[in-house]
Amino acid sequence: MSETSGTPVRRGSLRRVLIAVFSTLSLAAAAATAATLPANASAPTPPSGWSQVFLDDFNGTAGTGVNTANWQYDTGTSYPGGAANWGTGEVETMTSSTNNVALDGSGNLLITPRRDSAGNWTSGRIETKRTDFQPPAGGKLRVESRLQMPNVTGAAAKGYWPAFWALGAPYRGNYQNWPSVGELDIMENVQGLNTEWATMHCGTNPGGPCNETSGIGGNTPCAGATCQAGFHTYAMEWDRSTSPEEIRFYLDGVNFHTVKANQVDAATWANATNHGYFVILNVAMGGGFPDAFGGGPDSGTVPGHPLTVDYVQVLQSAGGGGGTTPPPTGNRDAYSAVQAESYDGQAGVGTETTTDTGGGQNISSIANGDYALYKGVNFGSTAAKQFYGRVASGAGGSVSGLVEVRLDSRTATPVGSFALGNTGGWQSWRTVPANISSVTGTHDVYLTFTSGQPADFVNVNWFDFGH
Question: Using CA atoms in the order 166, 168, 170, 174, what is the torsion angle rounded to 10 degrees?
Fold first, then answer.
């Protein structure tokens, strides 16, 4: 939660309102961090060209607090000497109690807002002890988390405001120099809406080159399972290997918002990026952002729905090339949308900009014999029995084909498929279900395409699986 000297503000709330209305360790070195990783860490292994500089996989005994070598608790209703109500107008008191911040014993962190019998709200907010997260010269930094927003919607969700974000290191201990020191909101959500907002804050407040207190923001919906109903991966990639330098925001591996250095003057960009950052997780209740979408919390708000965090990981890519953007989760989640254009291998398919909800790209020009490969899809121990494909077709009336799912080999027997003909156009999208043979464990998934005609017959935007 950002604040200025005496003037309550919030991470991009006004910008988010406009978007929504008019269209949201202290360890000494990376080697030391890596040495402390738990053996059962489920965060994805860094891809080639990347090194891991921070990880918390939240493994531990149910009901215990966070690892205080990695995190510090923010408590009360403000930073020392900072603006009241965390500078945002929210109504909860942050605590270090395991009633609000605790491990679940299954590798997740739960940040849970509570309401007592007198109507007073408590919740949790933690931030990394480290404040040095920044890309090396000519390199990249990636901050990511796989998490599930509080699973509450409608009137019961009024006032909920979960967030995963980062603040410039000079803010710690000062609390009066926002927004010039920079803020990067990787994930914010309010009111149980199926929308994720991302924003960069910089410059001066109000107004200035970064349009404060709004910031420079964008938003996108969660595909497949909603943001509330399933886990998704939220990431920020700060890239000093490009010219101009840029900061990109991702949902499930899809870049939906980018801020480039040449969007502001050089001094503003330097002031926001010439230092490290620290990372924050919290669930606020009430404040400016929820107020813009109906307010809350009120008597109809249902407490007790946590922000569930699987892991937080920070990766670094050195200068001099390499370090391609990792796939959505490395070890992909079968039950969250796998973006079709994030393939690890393919034959015959192209990509194009999609007009489907959420934007991004789809794979296209798909005909008989084409395929796309997605490595390391994790189905877990409970069998998946359904496949869902987000598809479109502008094929001629006599042209149709099969979308097939195969495991571990392009020539394996399909575990399931569905037939598709013309849907009304190459950007006329529909979600088509299919039964599949029971699948557990982790597999490489091949989407293969079979047709009796040589013509293109399908585009694919995303796919996922269900029980």
Answer: -50
Residue 355 DSSP class: -
Those residues whose C-beta lies under 8 Å from the C-beta of residue 266, and which sit 6 or more positions away, are: none
* Residue 122 CB contacts under 8 Å (≥ 6 apart), including other chains: 92, 93, 94, 95, 97, 99, 100, 113, 114, 115, 116
For residue 251, the Cα-to-chain-centroid distance in whole angstroms is: 5
The C-alpha atoms of residue 284 and residue 125 are separated, in whole angstroms, by 8
Report the candidate in 133, 111, 109 with the shortest Cα–Cα distance to residue 54. 133
**444 pLDDT higher than 60:** yes
Helix then strand count (H, E) for the chain reads 4, 30
pLDDT at 18 over 70: no
- What pLDDT, in 10s, does the model give residues 62-96? 999 999 999 999 999 999 999 999 999 999 999 99
Residue whose tokens read 């999208």: 429
Residue 114 CB burial class (10 angstroms; 0-12, 13-18, ≥19): middle
Name which of 90, 278, 262, 89 is nearest 181 in CA terms. 278
- Closest C-alpha to 355, from 422, 425, 421, 402: 425
DSSP bridge partners of 387: 434, 465
How high is the pLDDT of residue 35? 28
101 near 65, Cβ under 8 Å? Answer: yes
Strand duo 246-251 + 71-73: pairing: unpaired
Angle (CA) 374-375-379 rounded to 5° is 95
Distances 140 to 29, 137, 242, 254, 322 between C-alpha atoms, Å: 17, 8, 9, 17, 10
Amino acid letter for position 198: A
